[in-house]
Fold each of these.
Amino acid sequence: MSEESKQYIPLLTGEDNLPTWKSVVRRSFIMNGLWEYLVTDIPEPADPEKLKEWTRDRVQASLILQKSLLNPHIERMLVNNGLDMEEDDPKAIWDLVNQVVPTVTKASMSSLLYEFTRLDRKSFATLFDYINKVQEINKRLKSTGCDLQENVIIAITLWGLKSTYPNDHSFWIRAFETGTLKWAELMKELGRIALDEQIRPTMVSLPAKNTGNPQGSGQNNDKDGGKMKRCTKPGCKF
C-alpha cells in the first residue's frame, strides 16, 4: 500500500467514527488488493513465492490497521479484549474491532447515563465542580454517539441541584415547564451563583486589633457605662 493511500485511513476514536473508519479502510484495501485479507481466511500457500507475497500482504495489512488503532482508549479497549499488538492476521484484528468497539461503547454510554442521573450538588465541594462534571459527562456521551436533547440535559442537571438550592430549583422548574429556561441561560445563572459562593468566604471581616487602650476606651458602652451585649440573631452584625 502506498504512502498516499495510508494517509487517508483515519484514527479510530470510538463508535462515533467507526462507520467512516470502516468505509475508508474498505476502499483503501480494495484499491491496494488487500481487502480479501480482512474478510476471508486466506490459507497459507504452499508455493514459496506465493508464500512470500501472502506473508508480506498480511503483515502490511495488519500494520496499517494497527496504526489507525493507536488512540489510547481504543488500544486499551482492544488489548483488554485479547488483541496482541504484534498480531499478523489482519482478519483477526478487523473482526475484533467490529465486535468490541460497538459493545464497549454501548456499555460506556449506559454507565455515563447512570452516573449523570445520580449527580448531586451536595456531593461536590463547589458548584463549579458540579458544573464541570455535568459538562464532562455530556461531552463523553456525545463521543459515544449519545447526543441528549437540551431539555433532557436541563431536567437531569436541575434534579441534581434540588437538595442544595430548593428555592432556586422551584423557580427553575417553573421556567423549564413553561419552556422559557434554556441551557445557555441556566449555565450563566449557575456560573453567577458559583462565583458568588466562591467570593463570599473572603468577605468575612477581620477581628479588631487590641491597641492596649485603657478599659472603656474605644469600646461600645451602653448608657450605664456597661458593655453592650452582642446581638446573636441571624443576620445581625452588632
Amino acid sequence: PLQHCLFVALLSQTILDNKGAYTALSTLENSLFTKPCSLSSMECCTISFSVPKKCQKAREHFATVRTQLESLKTKFPADQYYRFHEHWRFVLQRLVFLAAFVVYLESETLVTREAVAEILGIEADRERGFHLDIEDYLSGVLTLASELARLAVNSVTAGDYSRPLRISTFINELDSGFRLLNLKNDSLRKRYDGLKYDVKKIEEVVYDLSIRGLNKESTVGAGGEK
C-alpha cells in the first residue's frame, strides 16, 4: 500500500539521518576526549608559567570543535533541537566547562553564556536553532567550580599561595549567584548541591594557609600574580 511505502521511506531516511548525526557526534567526542594534553588535560599545566601558551593552544582546538559542531548542526532539523538534545547534552556541558576554564585561566572571570556560544560557534538564542541551552551552560559552570577546588589544592603544593585566595573569592561569588536561581531541574539541582562541598574544600585550603601564616604572603603577591 502507498501508506506503507511512505512509512518505509520515511523510516529509512530517519535511520540515514541519525547515522550521519551519530558519526558527527562521535567525531566531536573523540576530538574532545582522546587528544593527549589537549583541552581535557589543561589542569596538568594550570600552575606553571606556560598558562598563556596552553590557553592559546586550547583555543586552537576550539576551532576544530566549531567545525565539528557545524557538521552536527546539519544533521538535525533546526526546530527539533530538544528531540535530539540528549545525544549531545553531555558533550556540550563538557565544552562549556573547558571554555569556562580557559577564560578563567586567562582573566580569572566567569565566561558568559553568550561568550561560550561564540567560542563554540553556536547560537545563544534558542529561537535561532542549534543553541547553548541555559541548563547546559550552568552545568558546565558547576564543573568549573569543582575543577577550581582541585586547582586550589594543587596551587598550594606548587607554592602558589595567592591563587587559592582568589579562587575562594571567585567561587563564593559564583555560589551567591546560584543561590538567586530557582533550580527545578533535578540533575542540575544535584550538581548545584555539590557546589557547597567545593566551597568548603576551598575554605579549608585558605584556612590552612592562614594558620600556617602563608596568607600574608599571598595577600602581598596577589596583585603581581594576576
Amino acid sequence: FSVFPDLLLMQKNVMRKQRNWERRPEVKKSQRKEEKQRKKLNRQSKVNVSIKAITKERLEEARGAGLRLCVDLSMTDCLSKSGRLIPDPGLYGCNKKALQPFRVFLTELKEDSLLYKECVRMNDGFLNYLIDVTEESWFHLFPSEDVQFYVNVHYVSMLALEYVEEDKVYILGGLVDETIQKKISYTRAKELGIRTARLPIDEYMVKWPNPKNFHSKNPMFEILLTFRDTKDRTKALAAGIPPGKGYMVASAASTDIINPSEEL
C-alpha cells in the first residue's frame, strides 16, 4: 500500500515542474522587460548627469569670461504691486539652455525687498543660481565705456540693436517704460550718457492689428541669446516673440542695418 503515496508524490512533482516550465517563458520575458527598463533608466540617468555637468561648466565659464548681460531692477518700485510680484522664472532657464550663456547680473536687488523674497519663493534653488546678484547699481558696477546699450523692448529708443559685441555690457531695462510712467528707464539712461537701443522689431517683423503688449525681460533675454547662438535676427525675434502676440517675421529687412560703432 505504500506505493500509492509515492506515486501521488511523483505526480505532484511532475505537475509542479510542468507548471514551472509553463511559467518560465513568461517569467523570462518579464525579467527581460524589467532589465531593459532598468538599463534604459540607467542610460537616461547618465545622460541627465552629463547634461547637468555640461550646463554647469558652460555657466561657470560664462561667469568667468562670458558676455555680460545685466538686468536692471532699480525701478521696480515704479511698477504696480502685481508687477513687482512677478520675478522672471524663465530667464535663468533660457540661459541654462543656451550654447553660449551670458554672464547674468541682477543689480539693485536688495535682500529685504519683496522682489528678492518672491524670487527665492518662486524659483527653486534661486540662491544657488550661477548668476551675480548685487544691491549695487549697474552704473557703479561697470565702467561707462564698457556699457554699450541700455536695451528696451521697443518703441522708445530710435536705434535698433543689430549687433552684439562680446566685450560690452548690455543692460536690460524698459520694463517700466510701457506703464503709466512713460520712458523712465530710457530717460535715466540718457541722463547718465548711456546709449540706448530697442529690439529691431519694426525692421524685421510685421505688426498685425491690435497686437498684445509684452513688457517682460524674458523676450529680450531669449532674443539676445538666440541671436548670439545663431547670428540670425529673424530667427532670434521669432524665438522670443510668439505669433500670438500679434507679430510675424517679415520676409526681408525693411531698413538698413545700423552699425553700433556709429554715434547717435
